[in-house]
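ESCALATION

Customer reports they have been waiting on this structure for their group meeting. Please prioritize. Original submission:
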Amino acid sequence: MDEDITVINTTTRNEKIKNFFIKNKKKLVILLSLIILLILSYFAYGEFDKRNKIKIANKYNNSIINFISGDKLNVESEMIKIINAKDKTYSPLALYFLLDNNIINSKEKINSLFDILINETKVDKEINNLIIYKKALYNSEFETENNLLKILNPVINSESIWKSHGLYLMAEYFLSKNEKQKSKEFFEKILILENSNPQIKLEAQKRIQRDFSE
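Update from on-call: job pushed to the front of the queue and completed.
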């Protein structure tokens, strides 16, 4: 008797499963197709991204080779294309190359390229903070106090590893303007900062002893 009931229950359960699949056949086929499509798209995108990265790397390396060999005509445009590609590795390197070799004279153009890296390129948080610091460093020779602080605020108001560098830059900026009290305040912030860069902290101590000792 019990065996008969078990057989009946099993048969009933199998029939329910069979009926479910028959009833929802189209939905299941669509769902399975979507899953397969997503998997294929994921691997296709990964392959595309990999090939695109290699292409950008080759363009960057070729531009440097051309620059070194004396063929500087297209270096600026090629490096700008790399920056606009918003690659987390080669886009920052391209801008640094333009800066280090004084290829672009326009401050507005340089700052617009910095903004592409800071606001539109997906890089690690600390790399982003480093780029912000480099933008401030570039602007420190000609920008006003308010504008320079506006650039640096995301770094000096955070717990970034580049915070002490930003504070040191502002201290040096105010010292160059002969605003010694403001400069001293920024140097002192470095000394009490827990994660100050050791070398930056040492330089701040030397500065205070040398330039602010009474």
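Sent to customer with the following note: The first helix runs from residue 2 to 23.
Escalation resolved.
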